[in-house]
């Protein structure tokens, strides 16, 4: 059961109020519509900003995804910076997806055929589409609990191409050190890299290994 008071519920019950944010990211000004019941609707979350400013973005045509997209900041920046890539934005929150679709129209008016905002929980909306990604990006909702995020690593390798990257941000006091140790034990230290530590946030990169043929 979902608690509709939280931003990670499908139908948050907060009284509807709209807001508009102007944010400079990677030397470009973006405009975002936001709404109550969506994560960080009053102000861009610092963790998201640090991830966006430091994430590795494919320069060529790739398939990438903003998982748990909120009102679409990460996915829209990815699509702007990688203009030939196909980008998916997914969130369980219906209000968030409405905002993401509006923000795609505002910031990426010519991207209709390559940027898609889908409603659902994590990979559910694409499970039957046989899509695998060059990059997965995420500011995980750790308020839902650390276990759910760690369980997601059973699925992440299934949706990444060889040498594909999963990049995400964790606040240090929300368990960044624990998650780092957990992932190094689950995979190996070669798979996990911390590419940035700033203002109490850690940016992680998980790199998919190339399967060796016998």
Instruction: State the major sheet.
Output: 7 strands, mixed
Based on Cα principal axes, name the global outline.
Answer: globular
Query: Helical segment tally?
Result: 5
Return the structural class: alpha/beta
CATH superfamily: Vaccinia Virus protein VP39
Low-confidence stretches: none
Number of strands: 9
SSE string:
EEHEHEHEEHEHEE
How many domains is the backbone divided into?
A: 1
Tell me the β content. Answer: 25-35%
Euclidean distance between termini CA atoms: 46 Å
Neighbour order of strands in the largest sheet = 5-4-3-6-7-9-8
CATH top level assignment: Alpha Beta
The name of the CATH topology is: Rossmann fold
Just name the CATH architecture.
3-Layer(aba) Sandwich
Share of helical residues: 10-25%
Radius of gyration: 16 Å
Average pLDDT confidence is: 91
Structure write-up:
With 214 residues, the protein is of the alpha/beta class. It is built from 5 helices and 9 strands. Helix 3 (94-107) links the parallel strand 4 and strand 5 (115-119).
Topology:
Elements: E1 18-25, E2 28-35, H1 46-54, E3 63-67, H2 73-81, E4 86-91, H3 94-107, E5 115-119, E6 133-138, H4 146-151, E7 160-171, H5 176-186, E8 192-198, E9 201-207
Parallel strand pairs: 3-4, 3-6, 4-5, 6-7
Antiparallel strand pairs: 1-2, 7-9, 8-9
List its traits:
single chain, 214 residues, alpha/beta, Rossmann fold, 7-stranded mixed beta sheet, two-stranded antiparallel ribbon, 5 helices, 30% strand, globular
Task: Describe, in short, the structure shown.
The chain has 214 residues and is an alpha/beta fold. It is 23% helix and 30% strand.
């Amino acid at each position: 059961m979902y608690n509709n008071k939280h931003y990670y519920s499908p139908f948050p019950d907060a009284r509807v109020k709209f807001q508009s944010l102007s944010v400079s990211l990677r030397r470009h000004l973006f405009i975002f519509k936001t709404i109550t019941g969506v994560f960080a609707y009053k102000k861009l979350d610092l963790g998201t900003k640090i991830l966006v400013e430091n994430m590795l973005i494919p320069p060529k045509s790739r398939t990438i995804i903003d998982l748990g997209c909120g009102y679409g900041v990460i996915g829209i920046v990815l699509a702007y910076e990688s203009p030939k890539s196909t980008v998916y934005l997914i969130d369980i929150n219906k209000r968030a997806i409405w905002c993401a679709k509006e923000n795609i129209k505002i910031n990426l008016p010519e991207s209709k055929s390559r940027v898609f905002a889908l409603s659902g929980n994590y990979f559910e909306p694409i499970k039957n589409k046989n899509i695998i990604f060059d990059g997965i990006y995420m500011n995980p909702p750790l308020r839902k609990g650390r276990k759910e995020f760690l369980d997601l690593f059973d699925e992440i390798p299934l949706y990444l191409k060889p040498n594909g990257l999963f990049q995400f941000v964790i606040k240090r006091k929300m368990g960044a050190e624990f998650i780092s140790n957990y992932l190094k034990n689950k995979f190996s230290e070669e798979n996990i890299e911390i590419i940035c530590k700033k203002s109490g946030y850690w940016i992680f990169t998980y790199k998919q290994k190339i399967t060796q043929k016998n």
